[in-house]
Amino acid sequence: MTIQEIQEEIVDEFSMFDDWMQRYEYMIELGKSLPLILEKYKTDDNIIKGCQSKVWVHAEMKEDKIDFTADSDAIITKGIIAILIRTFSGQHPKDIIDADTGFIDEIGLKEHLSPTRANGLVSMIKQLKMYAIAYQTQLN
Fold first, then answer.
1. Is 51 a catalytic residue?
2. Taking the CB of the first residue and of the last residue of the chain, which one, N or C, has fewer CB atoms within 10 A?
3. Contact predicate 30/75, CB 8 Å
């Protein structure tokens, strides 16, 4: 699936819920299905700066696509990173770099997060795109 198709699927899933309590519960469930980072990658180098809670992300190239794993010490944050990992993992670096993340606004996520969590979300997106830039540079 393309990033766009995955984003549309996520928007459809979130539109099934009537209120934000149900959406938060769904995000917590998504967090439980997150491809977890190996303990050896839970280092300070892999912590996303700008997040109130701890979020670790590890990226590696598999063939010509980036495979992301992550974890967080907070359940909502774990759900947020799970959405982003689902969107970007298994994609080409250039596609990640060029991806529009407007689907985040479409599901209303940013407006229903505290300001510190919203900043953390922006930091997560920025970090995933930085990994993509680094890998894209290696490919060129």
1. yes
2. C
3. no
Catalytic-labelled residue, pool 30, 34, 48, 51: 51
**pLDDT > 70: percent of the chain:** 100
Nearest by Cα to 72 from 117, 26, 25, 6:
117
Token pair of 90, please? 């298994």
Mean local confidence (pLDDT), 110-137: 92
Average pLDDT over residues 128-132: 97
Per-residue model confidence (pLDDT) at position 43: 95
Instruction: Determine the Cα–Cα distance for residues 135 and 120; give it in Å rounded to an integer.
Output: 23
Q: Report the 10 Å Cβ neighbour count for 45.
A: 8
CA angle 21, 34, 52 (to 5 degrees): 65
Phi/psi of residue 23, nearest 5 degrees: -65, -40
Is residue 51's pLDDT more than 90? no
pLDDT tens per residue, range 109-119: 888 888 888 89
In degrees rounded to 5, what are phi and psi of residue 36? -75, 140
Tell me the two tokens of residue 75.
């359940």
